[in-house]
Amino acid sequence: MAKYRDLTLIGRGGFGEVWKCIRKEDEREFAKKQLSFDAPSAKERFQKEVRILAKLDHPNIVSIVARHLKEEPLWYVMPLYSQSLASEITKLQGDPIRIQKIFGAILDGMEYAHAEGVLHRDLKPDNVLMNNDDEVVITDFGLGRIIDSESTRLTSTGQWMGSVLYMSPEQLRDTKYADERSDIFSLGRILYELFTGPLSSAIQDTTSLNPAIAQIINRATRPDSDDRFQSVSDLKKAWNAVVSVPDSISDYKRIKEIVAGLAAVRDPNESDTSELLQLLGRYWDDNDLLHDTLMALPAEVIALMAEENLPLVRGIIGRFVEHITSQRWNFSYTDSIGNQCGKVFELIDDPPIRAELLFCVVEAGVNHNRWHVMSVAKQLFECRRSRAESLAIAERFKDKPPSLMGWIREAVSLAKLDDILKELICEPEKQGLGWTAPNTTRLG
User: Fold this and answer.
1) pLDDT tens figures, 169-194
2) SS3 54
3) Would you say 435 and 410 are in contact if contact means Cβ atoms under 8 Å apart?
4) Domain ranges of the chain
5) First to last CA, the chain
6) What is the C-alpha separation between 173 and 158, in angstroms, rounded?
7) Which residue(s) pair with 11 in the sheet?
8) Does residue 100 surpass a pLDDT of 60?
9) 3-state DSSP helix/strand/coil % of the chain, to nearest 5
10) Rounded mean pLDDT of the chain?
11) Under DSSP, is residue 66 helix (H, G, I), strand (E, B) or coil?
12) Matching fold, domains 4-78 and 83-243
């Protein structure tokens, strides 16, 4: 058996220490994990971790180079890695290419582990080691178990162990309920952290993320395990569909082909709308592309897309409105914007989307002094709506410029509004803020 000499202590956990060591026969450096907690349960966990790792052989799961389990101190030797994923979290924000590679490696490792019947149950960035983005391994299977194993579990009923911010609700309630979907929950939390920064609480807000990414995170972390991805393979398939390396030339050409086809038929093909949504999610940052696509598509097709993937369409329309309201447009095109927004508004019964479209029409009409667009805005404001929609509109128009609020107060019939919108419109008036029509010739 090869002999190893400890060099420096590089880590310490609840049950053991990790040392940088050197193999005497060839002077190669490794990491040695050594049990330092003197308790029967700790010894059993440590031995179980070694058994699990010895069972697995995958480039994204840490390997065992040597082991010493017959007498104390118990230890095993593994390759030496320069850092954990936890130390890279802040550097990864805003770098989807690195996230794609690293998270893909984690998915590959866990897909293999589950296929071999092994759960992890303590997935977190601290338990992902790396030298670079091409050398990423999952480690610390001390809380793992062999699925359907007849051996006694080391966690009794009602007990849980692991890292709370990454643990599924069922695992927090009772470890015996943890299964593959509990690891999927942890993977979703890791993905959320990769995009938003170090976790500080269990609260999760994905509204600022690409809706396609947000949808994956939200589905992976559903409270009910039956609502999550049911396998890592399913999660991996969804992830790859979103982050696959784009070919912008052919993809843009394909988007134009699909849009032209959808605009020319009465009954849109469901596979075409699905492909278009996937492509638009991939080019989420191309505001011009999103804008051109929404203006070219029939409103009925946009409504069908919302039925298929509401979070993504919400996000696309939000970026569309942001783009529209940050630009100046010629008169005829401003009218086209108002007409398109009005048509989509009528066909999609979703409060956040309708609030966005209403704001877009009001802003475009008032700031471009287009009477036709303002008349569309008046009609949309005065239509019947749910309380949820009124609340969404009130939130969207909160703290908007007096020019917008003054026009609404002058143009819209208060008698046709509910109390929520009446309060929204009348509040600026209490503060002495009004709207003065521009001194221009009436156009359109």
Assistant:
1) 998 887 777 899 999 999 999 999 99
2) helix
3) yes
4) 4-78, 83-243, 325-444
5) 90
6) 7
7) 18
8) yes
9) 55, 10, 35
10) 87
11) strand
12) no
Q: Mapping DSSP to helix (H, G, I), strand (E, B) and coil, where does residue 61 land?
A: strand
Token pair belonging to 371: 């009477």
E strand or H helix at 135, and its extent? strand 135-138
The architecture of the domain spanning 83-243 is Orthogonal Bundle (1.10)
Sign of CA dihedral 105, 107, 110, 114: negative
Q: Which of 222-226, 282-286, 310-314, 354-358 has the lowest mean pLDDT?
A: 282-286
Q: Exposed, middle or buried by CB within 10 Å (0-12, 13-18, 19+), for 433?
A: middle
Q: Which two tokens stand for residue 13?
A: 């956990």
Which overall architecture, per CATH, does domain 4-78 show?
Answer: 2-Layer Sandwich (3.30)
Residue 4 φ/ψ region, left for φ over 0, alpha for ψ in the -120 to 50 degree band, beta for the rest: beta
Q: How far apart are CA 436 and CA 285, in angstroms?
A: 37
Q: What one-letter code names the amino acid at 75?
A: W
Is the overall model pTM greater than 0.90, yes or no?
no
Cβ atoms 394, 424 nearer than 8 A: yes
Residue 117 has pLDDT above 60, yes or no: yes
How many other C-beta atoms lie within 10 A of the C-beta of residue 380?
A: 21
Cβ atoms of 5 and 21 closer than 8 Å: yes
Kindly list the catalytic residues. Answer: 122
